[in-house]
Protein 1
Amino acid sequence: IAEGCQRQCTFCVIPSIRGPLRSLPPEDILKRAEFLVSKGYREIIIVAQDTTSYGNDLGKGYGLKDLLKDMAGIDGQFWIKLLYLYPGSVDEALLELIAENKKICPYLDIPFQHTEKRLLRLMGRTGDREAYLRIVSLAKQIIKDLHLRTTFIVGFPTETEEEFQGLVSFVRDVRFDHLGGFKYSDEEGTKAYNLKPKVPEDVINKRYELLMKTQAEISTEKLRNYINKILTVLVDTVEEDIATARHPGQAPEIDGMVLIKDPEGLKVGDFVEVLVDDSTTYDLIGRLV
Ligand code: SF4
C-alpha cells in the first residue's frame, strides 16, 4: 500500500534505498482489492515498510483505518491481514476496528525490534518495555483470540547481556504466537554501522539461539492447546495425502501452517473447518470435520 519510509531506524537501509514514504492512492488499492476478490482471491495482505504510516504523505486525512474500513466493505468472503505495524502507532481505535470487523483477522504483526529503552533510542526507535507491554495488554483485552507476531534484533552494537536478558524476559512474559529473530549485521551507510563496541559474532549467535529456543518452547506449548479444537482455515495447497492451510492467526510464508490429512475434495482457496489432533513446534495437524 506504500513504498519507502519516513522513519529513521539507525540499522535500516530502506529509507536510503526506497526513499521517503509514498502511499498509493486509496482508490487504486480498493479497485485492486475488489478485482482480486471478484477473481476468487481469499486473502488480502496489507503491507508496506511501515504500514501504520499509510496516507501520511497524501495530505487528505485518509489513513490506514479509513482504508481498512473501506476494504472490509467490499462484498465477498475474504480475509484481511495486517503486517508491519510500527509499535508507537498502534492505537485503541485501530485495535477496536480490528476487533469489530470480521473480515480483518485478529492478527497483529508489530516488529518491536528490542525492549530496552537505551537500545531502542540507539536504534532510533520510540517506546520501551512498559509502553510495549501496555500495547500488548490493550490489544489482548480488545481483540478476542488475538495472534501476535513480532521481530527482534539481537546483538545490536553495545547490547549488554543484561539488556538481552531483558528482551528474553519480555518474550517469556508476552508469549508471542510467532517471533522472528534477526542477528544484527552491519549495513554500510547506516548510523549503526559506526556504533561501537560491536557485539562479537559468537555472542550474537548464542543470543540468537537462546531467543529462538525460548520462542520454540513457547510455540510448542501454545500449539498443544489447539488440540481438539475446531478451526476455520483457508486452504493454500492440496496434494494427494496432505493439504496445507492457515487459520486467521497465521500469515503466509512467515508463520506456521495447518496440515490437513486426507484432503479429498479440497481445493485451493476453500475455507473449511478442521479438527486439530496433533501439533509440532510451529505447525498444527488435523482433519476435516
Ligand atoms: S526498520 Fe522499518 S520503520 Fe524503521 S526505517 Fe526501516 S522500514 Fe522504516
Protein 2
Amino acid sequence: MTYLSKKDFSQLCLGSSGEGGISQIYIPEIVRTLEEAAMGCPPVIWLQGASCGGCSISLLDNVHPKLRNALIKIKSLAFLQQPVANKNDFVEKVLTIARDYKGQFYLIIEGAIPTGADGLYCIVGEDADGRPISLLNLVKKLSASAKAVLALGTCAAFGGVPAIEPNPTGCQGVSKVLAGQTVINIPGCPPHSDWVIGTLVHVLRYGIPDLDGDLRPTLFYEGLDQGEEPLGYLTESLKKTSFS
Ligand code: SF4
C-alpha cells in the first residue's frame, strides 16, 4: 500500500490543480483514508441550503468509482437533502451528533444560507414546541461545536447564484454568516471533485490546510487571483442579467 506523507499529498494536489486529475496510484491511499473515517469517528454532517444540488450530484457522478464507494460508506455521514420528509428526525439526529462529538465532527455546507426574515426562508424542522428551526440557526448551533466547517461550492463559499441581486431571501456565504470562525471555502460551480475529495482527505488526515485570503485551500486555488473562481465569469454574467 502506498503511504502518502503530508508533503507527498501537497505535491499531488499541486499537480492535480494544474493538470486536472488525481493520479490512479494514489487512489488506494485516499480510499484508505476515507474508509478509516468511515469506520468510526469523526462524524460528518452534510447540509444543503439554497442549492441546486449540483455540488453533491456532480461529486458522486464524477469521482473515481472506488472513491465514490468509500465516500458513501462513511457510516457516520448525516446528509440533509432538500426537500426531505422527516426533517425533525434529521435535526434531532444532527444535534445529538453535535452534543456527543463536541469539537470532533465535521460540518459540510452545500449552498448559500438564507438570512432574510431571520432565516425563515429555509426551515429545516421544528422544535418540541412546534416553532420552526431555520437552517441559519442550525448552522450557527452546529458550527459552534464543529471541528471544522467546509463550504462546498460557490453558493456556500460566496453566496453564488442565490445571492444575486435583488436577493430577496438574503442569501449569504457561510463564512459571512459565521464571521470569526474558521471556514474552508471550496468554490466552483460545481467544484472540481478532486479538490473536494483532496480537501476532505487533508482535513481528516492532516488537519486544516493552508488557506488563502478567500479561505480557499492554497493546494488547489494557488495561482487563481483572489476572488477569482472557476466559471466566475458565469456568476458575473448572471449578475448583469435581468430576470424581470
Ligand atoms: S455552486 Fe453551482 S452546482 Fe453548487 S449548489 Fe451552487 S449553483 Fe449548484
Protein 3
Amino acid sequence: MNNKYFTIQQAAEGIWGAISVPGSGSLGNAAIIDIGDLTVVVDTTNLPHSGALLRQTAEQLTNKPIKYVINTHFHGDHVNGNQEFMESDFISTVWTRDLLSEMGKVNIDLMQQNIQKLINSLHQVRSQEKNPHMLTEIGYDLSVQRALYDAIPSLRRVIPTITFDDKLVIKGAKRTVEVLSYGGGHSLSDAVIYVPEERTLIAGDLITNKTIPVMPHGNPYAWIRILRRIQRDLKVDTVIPGHGDVSTPDKILDVIRFLEKTIAYVSEAATSGKPESYWLNEGVLNGYEDWHLAQYFRWNFRWLFNTMLVQNNR
Ligand SMILES: [Zn+2]
C-alpha cells in the first residue's frame, strides 16, 4: 500500500492515514475512512499524481466507492489532488469553498513564477545555512517545490459543492463521521473530522506532529482557543495530523505550547527595538530545532513580528 508519496498508517479500525514521505512532493497528509457502505477521503495532497495514488489506495483498502471527499482547508497541499476524485462529492466549510472559488482558474504562468521565486530564495537560504537538519529540510522543500512546478500545467481547481458552517454529519452503515469547524486558526477556516466510534480525530493542519505549524495569515490566538475546545469537547485516542505521523492526542498540547511560546517570543522581540534581521539570525525557537519544516519558523517569525510592530505603533 505504500508508495513513493506516502505510507499508510492505520489509526483505528476502518481509518487510515496517508502520511506524506518527506521531500516526495505530496507534502500534506490525507486520510481514508471506511464508514461501512461508503468511503470518505479527507484531503487530497499537494499533487495530482499523489492524489491519483491516494484514490487507488482508498479503493483497494475499502473496496467501496469514494462517495465523499472533505477538504479541511484551502491550502494547496490539501486540495491539489482533488481533480483525481471527479466521481466524488466534495465537502468543505462555506468559507473554504468561497476561498477556492475566488482563487479562480489555475494561472499557470503566475503560479510557476511564484514557485520559481520561492525556489530561488530557498537556494539562497541554503547557501548560508550550516545546520545539518535545516539543510535536510531545505532540500526536502526544494524537491517538493520542483515537483509542484512541474505539475502546475496539469492542475485543475475543484470547488466543493456541499458546504456547512459548523457541523455536518455523515452516517454510514458502520460508523459516523462528524465534520466540524470551530472557525479559523491555521487558515481562515479550518475543519476537523471526528469519528466518535473510533475516538479518532483527523485534524488537518490545526495539529501537526513534530512539524513547525505554519502561522502566516492565520490567527494564532483563535488557533489556541480552537485546540482547547477540541481537548474539552472531543474524546480522542488517536490523531491523524496534517503533517507528521499518526499519533496520540498529546500532540494537541504540543501545538498549543508551540503557539504560546512563539507568541511570547515574538512579542518580546517586537518591543526590543532590535531589527527583524537580528532575530532571524537567532534561528528556530529553543526546543523546536529538530522539528520538520524548520525553515518555516522564519516565515512565522517575520509575519507575526511585523503584525505586532504595526499593532505597537498604533
Ligand atoms: Zn495548511
Protein 4
Amino acid sequence: MKAQDQSTYDVIISGAGPVGLFLACELALAKCSVLILEKAEAPNTPLKQLPFGIRGLSAPTIEALYRRGLLEQLEVHKRIKNPHLHAKEGAQRQVGHFAGIPFLEGNVDTSQWEYRLPGSPATSLISEMQELETVFARRAESLGVEIKRGLAITGFQQNADEVTVEAGHQSFKAKWLVGCDGSRSVVRKLGGFEFAGTEPEFTGYTTRIDIADPEKLKPGRNVTERGMYMQSQPGYVVIQDFDGGAFHSSDKPITLEHVQEVLRRVSGTDVTINALHTATTWTDRARQATTYRNGKILLAGDAAHIHSPLGGQGLNLGLGDAMNLGWKLAATIREEAPEGLLDSYYTERYPIGTQVLDWSRAQVAIMKPDPGARALNAVIRDLINTRDGATYFAGRVWGIHTHYRLNGNHPLTGHSVPNFEFEDGSAIGELMHDGKGILLDFDGNDSLKTFATEYSSQISYISGSAKEQLGLSALLIRPDGIIAWASDKSFDLNGLEEAAARWFVINSKSI
Ligand SMILES: Cc1cc2nc3c(=O)[nH]c(=O)nc-3n(C[C@H](O)[C@H](O)[C@H](O)COP(=O)(O)OP(=O)(O)OC[C@H]3O[C@@H](n4cnc5c(N)ncnc54)[C@H](O)[C@@H]3O)c2cc1C
C-alpha cells in the first residue's frame, strides 16, 4: 500500500456519477471538504453518451438544479425557449408514458396543481448524462472538491470518529463515507447493508446496431406478445425480453446472433442485423437498502435503490437523495444539526424510494406477455386518455406530488416551495444559490425579522411582497427548498419556533 494521503476529509464519496457529483457540490457549498474516488479512468463512458445517455428530468430535479444556478448551464435548458408547460401548444404531443402508454400534453390539466405558479421551472426536461456530469464536475471542482479518477474503492473500516478507505493501493481518511457507486455498490456490499426487494421479470437490451431491413420494425415503442421493442432513432434499439432476467444474470457475451434472435422473437419479425456496435443489458430487479446509514457510512442514488428504468426515475430519485442529504450531513459535520437531523434523511427518502420501486413494478406488471396483464393494460390505456387520468399520471411521472410528511398544520408543509416571483422580477428559487434556509416574510413583520437573526448562520431573512402569494404571509424554507412551516394571514410564532428548532440550531459559533 502506498504512503497514505494524510488529509482527513469531511466526506469521501465513492463514485463520480451524477449523484456523487451533485452531493459533493451540496456538501462543498456548505463548506465541507470532499474527496470523490471514481473507479473509471475517464468520465463519459460510451453508455453515458448520446443516445444511450438521454435521461428525463422531473420537476423536483429541475427545481433543485434551478435553485443552485445549474439549470441555465445545461444546453438542453437553453434550447427550450419557454420551458413552462403550455397546454395549447402541441396539445397532441406525448409528454410522458406509463408502461409505454403515452399521455398527451393537451390532456394534462395543470390547473389542478394549485400551488404551481406560472413562473416555475419546467415540469420535465430531456437531459444528457454526459452533460449533467460535466456541469456537476465543473461546479464541484470550482467549489474545491477533489476528484480522483481511476481509483476504485475496494475496502474500508470505520470507528466512532472516522472511516479509512482503501482504493488503488492507497488509503484515505474521512469523517464520513457516502456510497454513490451505483447499482453494484461496493460500499453497500461491504458496509453490511441489507438490499431487499424483488427479482426481475425481464432482461432489457440497449443496443446500437445496423439493420439490413429496418422497415420490418415499427417505429416508436411497441409492446408485443413477447415483450417490448423500441427504435428511438435508426439503429438504436431497446428490447425487453421477459426471460425472468436470465440472460442479464448469465455470464454470456452479448453477441450479434443473440441480439438478433431476441429481437426477432420479441418483434415477431425475421429482421436481420448486419452489425452490433454497442450493447448493454439491464433488468427490472427492484431492490432497496433497508437502511441508508450504518454508523459513518451512508448510501445515495442507485447504491441505495435499483429498479427498471421504465418511466425514467432512477436519476431523479438519486439527485433527490443528494439534495436531501447534503445540507443535513454538512450541518452534522459542522456540529450545527439538531437531534435527529441526519436520521431524517432515511425517514424522508426511504418512502419516496419505495414509491418509485412500486411505480416501476406496476409498469412491468401490465407489460407482461400474458392475458391478465393485457387486460389491465387496456384499462390503464382508457384511464390515461381521460383528462383526470393524464393529469394523475403526469403528476406522478413528473414528481409534482413528491413531498415529505413533516409536522405542521399548513397543507404546504413538506412540499417544495412554489417559485414566488417578487415585484423586482427575481424569484425565490434564484435566492437559494447559497444553500441556506430562508425565512420568507411577505408582510415585513418585525417579530419575524428578529426571530431570523437568532438563526442567521443557517437562515436568511427575505422580506417583500410577491406577485402571487397564494394567501400566505410567511414561510420557513429548508436549504433543499422544502417548506418546513407556512402561515396564512394570522400566524402563530410557536409553530415557527418548533419548525426552526426541528431543522436548524440557534447561532452557536458563527455570529
Ligand atoms: C437504459 C437506462 C435508461 C435510464 N433512463 C433514465 C431516465 O430517463 N431518468 C432517470 O431519472 N433515470 C434513468 N435511468 C437511471 C439512471 O441512469 C441511474 O439511476 C443514475 O445513473 C444513477 O446515478 P448514480 O450516480 O447513483 O449511479 P451511476 O450513474 O451508476 O454512477 C456510479 C459511479 O460510481 C462508480 N463506481 C462504481 N463502483 C465504484 C467503486 N468501487 N469505487 C469508486 N467508484 C465506483 C462508477 O464508475 C460510476 O461512475 C436509466 C437507466 C438506464 C440503464
